[in-house]
Amino acid sequence: MVNQDPTNPSHALFDQFVQSQTCKEVQRTFSELCHHLQLDPRDYQSFYTKLKERLNYWKAKALWIKLDKRAQHQDYQQGKVCAKTKCLVLGAGPCGLRTAIELALLGAQVVVLEKRDSFSRNNVLHLWPYTIYDLRGLAAKKFYGKFCTGALDHISIRQLQLILLKVSLLLGVEVHTGVEFKGFVEPSEATGWMAELFPDDHPAGKFQFDVFISAGGGRFVPDGFRWKELRGKLAIGITCNFINHHSAAEAQVAEISGVARIYNQKFFQDLLTEKGIDLENIVYYKDATHYFVMTAKKKSLLKMGVIKQDFSDANQLLGQANVDQDALLRYAHGAAHFSTGHRLPNMQFALNHAGQPDVAMFDFTCMHRAENASLVRERKGKKLLMGLVGDCLVEPFWPLGTGIARGFLAAFDTAWMVRSWGKGKPHLEVVAERESIYQLLSQTTPENINKNYSAFSIDPATRYQHVNLNSIKANQVRNTQILSITL
Ligand code: FAD
């Protein structure tokens, strides 16, 4: 007779793990659970199977059903296709973790490095329908009951990271926080590719890998990759978060999924007349916080004293020394208050990781896009496949919420690339195929990707409408993406 006693310590630990609300708590409860069940989380090949065998608990079983369904997909060949592949993933943001999950399902050994030691971003991400479907398939609702209930199509960055961290750990991914990737240690006759880390005595520095995935966000593009800058007209974004007290009055206030000046001139004119605030657009999402993102006009920021002095250089314009923080708080508060019809009661700023009101102003006048998504380095006859995913591949345009949608597409495409690598496909062909697929990424919209979400897999043909895996030929990547020095 199976022990289904609710006071069973492993059941209690599992419940705590599932409900953990901070990165540290997830790691602690996971390690306690492993210890209690006498499981070694580094035993990545059989960790998940053993966990299932030892944790005979109905709540856990509901989770296994979801994860098993995913794991049984033919693309993963029962986790055998990349059984010899060792992957280092830089960054435990949503895209790094989403990639790590796919690599683990392919059977690879996966180590994730994250320089921060907490998940603290309140800002809210817009989710395209396919990403909601994808996350439900990873049991997002079991980890976060409020996940996309009703018509909600967004989630806070930190909550998404927590869900993906939990799934990663259950699938045998090793996640190290508080450790920074500094560069590569090149192979010797006796050793393979390794990473230089801070702190420099971190045990993950001993890990030898043949695949490196950078998901470092923003402009973190590793050496060897080139990027393009796309410059538009000056665009100043402001994000802010207010505490959600979860009162009945707050529940009544309608979200704004996006209102742009060209569609509602009266709204923006009234805002300017009443508050002196001049915006191009504004979005309001109700999540763990009340989250607003808006594009503000420089002239009104100057007039309201938020920006002290006009400069043509955006870095100087928005540099700390040129911004009056109190005026910025008043500006953001005013816009949020007006756009919700003055109906949000008791508007107090939520705090950011530094304990300050969570308001930020940023420039998205120019955005970066990596020219290539992959390359291969070779030293001492040892090859390293490198790939970029998420914001460091294509910097997203926040107001359109493309970050997660295109970030997850790139995560799947990258997993497909690693699958080909694991299968022993010639490296020039692996890279050429990855670049052929990358050409499609920036054109994807919720309308033009395939609609049969249940058929989505890491195979690009299931997701993109017109994909030609050979549009770039192996000889076209030979000179730019194969960095080979055989010493
Ligand atoms: P990120 O989420 O940025 O994750 C990258 C991770 O890599 C980080 O955790 C970072 O600490 C880690 N890292 C970087 N360098 C190293 C290193 N050398 N060693 C180890 N770890 C490293 N999008 C929106 O749509 N709306 C928003 O309001 C919004 N706000 C944002 C606010 C901030 C402060 C940031 C940074 C991003 C924001 N974004 C927003 C973008 C959004 O978070 C990303 O599109 C999304 O999280 C996917 O990004 P990612 O996983 O590629 O990178």
What does this structure look like?
With 487 residues, the protein is an alpha/beta fold. The strands form 5 sheets. Strands 5-2-1-8-17-16-18 form a 7-stranded mixed sheet. The protein has a 5-stranded antiparallel sheet with strand order 11-12-13-10-14. A two-stranded antiparallel ribbon has the order 3-4. The chain has 2 domains: 263 residues, 3-Layer(bba) Sandwich (FAD/NAD(P)-binding domain); 132 residues, no CATH class. The chain is 35% helix and 20% strand. Helix 1 packs antiparallel against helix 2 and helix 15 crosses helix 16. It has 16 helices and 18 strands.
Q: How far from one another are the termini?
A: 62 Å
Strand order of the largest sheet: 5-2-1-8-17-16-18
Overall helicity: 25-40%
- Kindly report the CATH topology of the largest domain: FAD/NAD(P)-binding domain
Mean pLDDT: 94
The main β sheet shows up as: 7 strands, mixed
For the record, the CATH architecture of the largest domain stands as 3-Layer(bba) Sandwich
Unique ligands: flavin-adenine dinucleotide
